[in-house]
What we know:
This protein is an alpha+beta fold. It contains 4 helices and 8 strands.
Amino acid sequence: MMDTTPIPRADEFESFLAYWRSLQAPDALVPSRVAFNPMQVRLMLPFVYMLELRAPDNLHVRLSGTALDGAMGRAMTGENYLDFCEPGDRAFFLGLAKEICGRPCGGRLVRRATFQDGKTHNMRQIGLPLSARDGEVKYIIGLMSIRSDFLAGIQAPALYIRSEIRDVSYIDIGFGVPPNDAWRPDTAG
């Protein structure tokens, strides 16, 4: 029987959040991108991503771990993350990124991913804001889980074709959070 334990585990998400909090300078709104040292989370690095909010329609992938690239079937670094989204989900992911950077706050997301081969699994992630050298909050550093049985079966990965948002919650880092149901299509403004 295959191990279906999510990688990273729940406690690793809390460790990732604790590491992010440790980067906070006393006089800064959020931690700086240059304070992030990938070697401090090296065991999690295959599951780490960094996005940069560049333009109203561009979530530039600055970093995508090897496990995430494997799940997508290709390298994502240097690409616009929104190009990997279904057309109907683009506004959601852009809105989530704008909320994380604009408020700022953290975000937790659970979604059910479907791949070309018909396999599905839950992907869980956390995204946290980082600032540029000038103080502008425009980066999101995050950690995403992928089931270990899914990774074990990757030889020629099936391409990701669809996801269903299951849950979104926000992390108050001192500036409040949007309503937890703001992400739902029937309650979003």
